[in-house]
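With this grant's support, the team has encoded backbone shapes as discrete tokens. A representative record is reproduced below.
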Amino acid sequence: MNKPFPQTIADKADRKLNARRNSQGVWFGMGMMGLVGWSVVVPTLIGTGTGIWLDSHHPGKFSWTLSLLIVGLIAGSLNAWHWVAKEDREMREDDQT
């Protein structure tokens, strides 16, 4: 069902004005990249540090460092995915209002 031409133009103008009002800018994007990056790096470094300590105090047949590095990387990636999904949800909710 097609809208009348003036209504289509008005809807597009409203969307454009709303986008300008809610624009986050470059710094928001940079901050989000930093948040995602640190949410992966911190658990990975914690896992690696813990693994190095365990390897030096409790050596075994497998490498604690490598194992906990992978666990930290997976945990950090899930954490980053959570943050990105949350921001995406909020942006979609803002678009619907």
